[in-house]
Amino acid sequence: MNAKRLLIGLAALSCAGLALAQEGISALKGHDSRAPIDLAADRAEAQDRSDRAIFAGNVVVKQGNLTLRTARLTLAYASKDGIDVNRIDASGGVTVTSPSETARGDFAVYDLDQGLITMVGNVRLDRGGSFLSGGRLTIDLDTGRAVMDGGLRGVNQGGGRVTGRFTVPKRPN
């Protein structure tokens, strides 16, 4: 393969990676971050003076067609007229799923007021047979846009790079 074909192939893979990162969360585009939240866990602790609650052990959060699973979750809320959840912090391995995508990472923050989910640490976004991996993934639920960053360079890190693999459909000759 000559150098020109190699560059064209690499450019095509880069475009496919951007398409997955930017359009890969399209199932969540327009997700209603103000929809009711269903939550289940092995243990719960309310800290009313701090306006937060802590959930631990097999935590499952469902909101519309979005599901978040984690080991530990802190839910921050305002308590003026009832409970108004505004932020969810998840740790201990986090998986966020929609009908067509799955994102995994070490930690996640779901800012309900901004409609943003940010995942950090060993992040992987899967859709079909394709995936992207990196250090940080930010998902805008209003637009469906997802941005993957490589993360920090350092010991036991991915070198600050986004990597991926994309399926290529078989085409007739």
Automatic annotation (TrEMBL):
<dbReference type="GO" id="GO:0017089">
    <property type="term" value="F:glycolipid transfer activity"/>
</dbReference>
<dbReference type="GO" id="GO:0009279">
    <property type="term" value="C:cell outer membrane"/>
</dbReference>
<dbReference type="InterPro" id="IPR005653">
    <property type="entry name" value="OstA-like_N"/>
</dbReference>
<dbReference type="Pfam" id="PF03968">
    <property type="entry name" value="LptD_N"/>
</dbReference>
<dbReference type="GO" id="GO:0030288">
    <property type="term" value="C:outer membrane-bounded periplasmic space"/>
</dbReference>
<feature type="signal peptide">
    <location>
        <begin position="1"/>
        <end position="21"/>
    </location>
</feature>
<dbReference type="InterPro" id="IPR052037">
    <property type="entry name" value="LPS_export_LptA"/>
</dbReference>
<dbReference type="GO" id="GO:0015920">
    <property type="term" value="P:lipopolysaccharide transport"/>
</dbReference>
<keyword id="KW-0732">Signal</keyword>
<feature type="domain" description="Organic solvent tolerance-like N-terminal">
    <location>
        <begin position="40"/>
        <end position="144"/>
    </location>
</feature>
<protein>
    <submittedName>
        <fullName>OstA family protein</fullName>
    </submittedName>
</protein>
